[in-house]
Structure prediction request, 360 residues.
Amino acid sequence: MANDRHINYVILGLLSHESMTGYEIKKRMDTSLRFFWGASYGSIYPTLNTLAQSGLITKYETKENGRDKIIYTITEDGHEVLKGWLREPVVKDELRYETLLKLFFGGELGCDGSLEHIRSYGSKVQDELALLRSIVSSLEQVKANDITHLHYLLTARFGVKMYEACLEWCAEAADELKKS
Amino acid sequence: MANDRHINYVILGLLSHESMTGYEIKKRMDTSLRFFWGASYGSIYPTLNTLAQSGLITKYETKENGRDKIIYTITEDGHEVLKGWLREPVVKDELRYETLLKLFFGGELGCDGSLEHIRSYGSKVQDELALLRSIVSSLEQVKANDITHLHYLLTARFGVKMYEACLEWCAEAADELKKS
DNA sequence: TGGCTCATGTAATCTGTTACATGATTCT
DNA sequence: AGAATCATGTAACAGATTACATGAGCCA
Prediction:
């Protein structure tokens, strides 16, 4: 592989679970991975082509229900490259929280503005939490002794844990702002 | 202001607290803001110049201890622009967690690899947590009834809450991987 | 028939980092 | 004396998004 961008490994990872189209990859990003990673078509489709050229995935052009599709499948080489990346230590975990930025500078505005940001953040978190909880409970019901399933479950539970802590903080922070 | 990048507001925000040099701004990024935002010299210095050209901050070139410095100060216009941004709703809170990515695809590798990632993540979190806790306790000791202080404290507490939840998750996740 | 979803892709743009260049001062 | 820190800045590059273009099938 010429370059070493995350998007390569994300796609290889998704294809290691299941063969799919670029469109479906994008869907997974917006559902399963949305909590901790994102990508747009503008990075997905070109990457699929370079991965195919490198022989890490294969293209299968077909027609389903009259719709043209390209189904991508990971190759042996692809698996090896993915595993190589998985074995390497994590380089960076990043948070870019506009909410915290606005809160950090919130003294400039007064408490009401900050309270509004916290409220709106809290309600966003609550929605995400509901979504994640439903994912967790459906994964728990499957009760597969499959290791892949366990990994999904652990990441989803991470999200639940995070968001629960967020909500606690929201309540406490709002209280304190009201007191002042 | 010609453009609408976050870096503009981050700098205005920091300067709303205190006048300082570009070098000091970078330091704040790496200490106070490191938990939820980051920036490099390559974005800070050019932004300082455009902000000065727009009249949102002023330059004061001086010499301290024989060192050349440029101290930047926010203007009235700068305050207004900052307030305008603070009043607007938050557009995006983002997480880019390589650790979760590697864990999500960790089924490919086996439990040992995932356990190693969790361990290493846990120890990183513990370091950050210690740092944040010391910030929180020093902020609590100041006991300023100042609203700006309260805002610092709330963001720091957010970090503590997050990281505590992370550590709980690390312990639980590791247990479950060991069981399997 | 009109709007939504499925499906693929590209060009322009944006935003930021990395690596380098430079030079003074302070600490050990 | 040498290393680390203070201090400012730029050019090349990286990595990604946005907006657009295109077109077919599905549902009401």
Remarks:
- The radius of gyration of chain A is 20 Å.
- Residues 147-179 of chain A form the longest helix (33 residues).
- Strands of chain A lie at 57-64, 67-74, 93-97.
- Helices of chain A lie at 6-17, 22-30, 41-53, 76-87, 98-104, 111-142, 147-179.
